[in-house]
Amino acid sequence: MADVKAGRNVEQDIRELVAEILESEPQEIGTDAHFVKDLGMDSMMALELLAAVEKKYRIVIPEDALPKFTDLRTTVTIVEGILKKK
Question: Which of 42, 43, 29 is nearest to 71 (CA)?
Answer without folding.
Answer: 29
